[in-house]
Amino acid sequence: MQPDGKVPGGPLTEKWNRYRSTIKLVNPANKRKFNIIVVGTGLAGASAAATLAELGYNVKSFCIQDSPRRAHSIAAQGGINAAKNYPNDGDSTWRLFYDTIKGGDYRSREANTYRLAQLSTNIIDQCVAQGVPFARDYGGLLANRSFGGAQVSRTFYARGQTGQQLLLGAYSSLSRQIAAGKVLMFPRREMSDLVLIDGQARGIIARNLVNGEYERHIADAVVLATGGYGNVFYLSTNATSCNVGAAMHAYRKGAFLANPCFTQIHPTCIPQSGDYQSKLTLMSESLRNDGRVWVPRNQDDKRPPNAIPENERNYYLEEKYPSFGNLVPRDVASRNAKEQCDRGNGVGATGYAVYLDFKDAIKRDGKDVIAKKYGNLFDMYANIIDDDPYKTPMMIYPASHYTMGGLWVDYDLMSNVPGLFVIGEANFSDHGANRLGASALMQGLADGYFVLPYTIGPYLAGTVRPSATTDHPAFKEAADAVDTRIKSFLNNKGKRTVDEIHRELGQITWNYCGMARNEAGLTEALQRIKELQTEFWENVRVPGSADDYNLSLQKAGRLADFLEFAQVMVTDALVRKESCGGHFREESKTEEGEALRIDEEYCHTAAWEYKGSGKPPEFHKEPLVFENIALTQRSYK
Amino acid sequence: MRENDTIDITLKVWRQKGADVKGRLETIDVKNISTHMSFLEMLDVVNEDLTLTGREPVEFDNDCREGICGMCGAVINGHAHGPEKAMTLCQLHMRKFKNGATIVVEPWRSRAFPIIKDLIVDRSAFDKIIQSGGYVSMNAGGAPDANAIPISQEIADKAMDAAACIGCGACVAACPNSSAMLFVSAKVSQLALLPQGKPEAAQRAWSMVNTMDRCGFGNCSNEKECEAVCPKEISIVNIARLNREFLKASFFSTVE
After folding, report:
1. For residue B253, what pLDDT is reported?
2. Inter-chain contact B93–A240, Cβ cutoff 8 Å?
3. Do residue B65 and residue A240 have CB atoms under 8 angstroms apart?
4. Do residue B63 and residue A349 have CB atoms under 8 angstroms apart?
């Protein structure tokens, strides 16, 4: 079965306008008869729940944290792209679209990406009207900056807290709808299963994390806005509660997982310092505007950085990529750091770090200028590492940051399961094999404020759903399965903690399915993950009980899903024998060692179908058709 | 980075099964803690050990572990989020403690924040306050162009200073009256400063303050403890602004 993206006809620039003008609308009086479940309250989930409620639908919103204000969108630092062209520097919808497609290494759907670029401008209007305090110029107009090597300044920002301010904006709109009674909010809930009735997504089982009760919720449609799966690497820049559970529940009920091997590794994170490490902290990419990346030329050079003379330093990015230098895209910068460290030129206690040096920038601009630009980041670094980056070069290393893959969706953002919509990072749709900086916030909010509120209408208006209640056998079956799983964790009484096994999973995925991948490594990883999965179910130890707050129990469920998911991710990486974006197959590179796409064979989206526990998933292919742009090889030399 | 030192500490940590059960401080001896660990990583290590020795781990809220989500927080030796300035608990590192130190770890204590378990409290009262007016009443779709209304950089910066609040609740925990005035004032200020929030400013201040009272938070008596512990350094100038808005609402507006 070939998944059908249901891209509307007509010229690319007209598709969305035509679609909006011709879709079946839901009568305003009927909207209040429809119930919609939205899981997750990040940028995508909160904006969708609020907007659907504003339109008149009844919404139930769920989040895992104690409040919808905390989802991990909040941690985004840099900014949000929009093709406003306020700086008059030549930006346009087309340019943003083109940059996004090219940046994604030609592995995303043209029509979805174009729509994203089109809607980007509406997002800024919406957020300003909500009271989001974006940075402004002296004249009072909005400030823009160039971000992640873009040649135009299209990034809007609120200090280093753009994600926080946008999320609090969406949260405020959501709060208004909660007060109006149009959204029922369920915090401290985890989606424990998806319920289908006659093949349609009709509800969820939510576990109340405070008292352990299973709650049944029925609706006319279910929207997943549950974020990415970066924690499959254990150490990542994600929050500790970020998980792949909701996506895996959907997958086991028939929804396809698309391009799970497309993961983004961010080049500038604070390196790991010990085994106890629980997460990695991202340092904004903007640091590469002034910092110079280098390693010692000699292997295992243990001298302190300031004792290494200039001629023994290898500024490898500047040498290798003279035109882009330290500003090469994320995937290129990350891979090169790994290459240096694997070769034995890495620094720091573990040998897995490179220097990011501000010495020359401070000499050129003065300490005050550098402090004004990056002061908060330098402070953060000094606090975590206990060293002064004004005097000693920073140490950085890449870390898992964002996942481009996710549940497969069509142009309507609906998965192949009718009535199951997926938005934000949880879906696979807009970034292809690599996401550009400042585009995640844009996609989350475009999906939630401006896409889903339109595209969910035709489904609700155009399909027949049998009347049912939460007494339907499908609910009982799902709740019983959740209960069995929870009890089996608690009754296991094994010898290893959840975190210990998760850490081991992270080592496997990071080493074999991280920044560089090859056939032998991936094959071995697949085998080792299977063994670890068996070990987990036999030997995990989960303390406490099921009827009060029990984080270990929550984490056990999430790890069970990561172990299953990791196998799909590795399988996807195995069969995609080309390099593209964040997916670097060592077998597929140019003579100079750069990523080499193979468009004749792999210009498609891989969509994986669940075939039962312990069985390999089935591969489906959605070909990618480029009608408007020519595919080129990226070059940053 | 300095040499990898380790320290031994004694934790006195609050254990409480639930809101209606009595709690107590439990003493746990902790050995060989790397000084490079964050405070929460130290608790992770303690919990791993408790798990493997058949005891129940200490439950504590945490999520982003980079100081922005506002989920974590505990009172460390009497200081909300610990002794360091402008810092959430997740950013506190063990190198700030001496070998042999005794560290008392307690949850936020406030009538408005009932305890769920151990160090976890229920802060839904904060959400209720925001729901009562912490927004601009506008629907998606009808916004004018983002540059239609210029806002001076000075005003935008002040609004951003206030908007930086992460809703962690440390201000309430530090206040002798358990007042939520700093939290309320941050949102009221942000929106009252900006032209987009002005039309509803009076209604907002009135409604949020009343909700705060109803949720069981105390009054402000200018102790300034809130400002001292705030990880985002929200200034009590915002409380003055809130008072102005509230007075305006009481005297000059038609708010019932």
Report:
1. 62
2. no
3. yes
4. no
- CB contact under 8 Å between A125 and B144, yes or no, is yes
For B126-175, the pLDDT digits (tens) are 999 999 999 999 999 989 999 999 999 999 999 999 999 999 999 999 99
Domain of B203, in residue numbers: 123-140+147-252
Q: Whose CA is closest to A173, among B70, B138, B204, B187?
A: B138
Contact between A394 and A386 under an 8 Å Cβ cutoff? The reply is no
**Mean pLDDT across chain A:** 96
H helix intervals, chain B:
39-52, 124-131, 153-163, 170-174, 181-193, 201-214, 225-229, 237-252
pLDDT of amino acid B1: 47
Q: Are residues B91 and B131 in the same domain?
A: no
- ipTM over 0.90 threshold: yes
Residue B196 has pLDDT above 60, yes or no: yes
Residue A148 has pLDDT above 90, yes or no: no
Nearest by CB to B64, which of A75, A210, A543? Answer: A75
Question: Would you say residue A272 has pLDDT above 90?
Answer: yes
B-contacting residues in A 438-457 (Cβ below 8 Å): 449-450, 453
Catalytic residue chosen out of the listed positions A154, A189, A330, A517: A330
- B211 inside domain: yes
Rounded to the nearest integer, the mean pLDDT of chain B is 95
Chain B contact for A350 (CB, 8 A cutoff): no
The CATH-assigned architecture of domain A265-401 is Alpha-Beta Complex (3.90)
pLDDT band at A579 (very low <50, low <70, confident <90, very high): very high
Give the DSSP per-residue string, A4-31: ------S-GGGHHHHHHHHSPPPPHHHH
CA distance B39 to B94: 6
Backbone angles phi, psi at A206, to 5 degrees: -110, 135
Residue pair B129/B207 in contact (Cβ under 8 Å)? The answer is: no
Q: Is residue B83 part of a domain?
A: yes
Name every chain A residue with its beta carbon within 8 A of the beta carbon of B207.
none
Last residue of a domain, one of B80, B106, B132: B106
Q: What is the CATH number of the domain that holds B78?
A: 3.10.20.30
B97 and B127, same domain (yes or no): no
Number of domain units in chain B: 2
Mutation target among B147, B168, B184, B203 for the A interface, most CBs of A within 10 A: B147
What mean pLDDT comes out for the span A525-543? 98
Q: pLDDT tens for residues B213-236?
A: 999 999 999 999 999 999 999 999
pLDDT score for A78: 84
Site from A88, A122, A130 to mutate, B interface, most B CB atoms within 10 angstroms: A130
B101 and B187 co-located in one domain? no
The percentage of residues in chain B with a pLDDT greater than 90, rounded to a whole number, is 94
Clarify whether A517 is annotated catalytic: no
Using a CB-CB cut-off of 8 Å, the residues of chain B touching A131 are 135-136, 159, 190-191, 194, 196-197
Cβ separation B143–A541 shorter than 8 A? no
Taking the C-alpha atoms of residue B126 and residue B123, their distance in angstroms, rounded to an integer, is 6
Asked if residue A149 has pLDDT above 90, the reply is: no
Tell me the three-class secondary structure of A204-244, residue by residue: EEEEECCCCCEEEEECCEEEECCCCCHHHHCCECCCCCCCC
Residue of B nearest to A159 (CA): B160
* CB burial of residue A406 (10 Å; 0-12, 13-18, 19+): buried
Whether residue A474 is predicted with pLDDT greater than 50 in this model: the reply is yes
Query: CB-based contact (8 Å) between A625 and chain B?
Result: no
B136 to A172: CB separation less than 8 angstroms, yes or no: yes
Does CATH number 1.20.58.100 belong to domain A473-623? yes
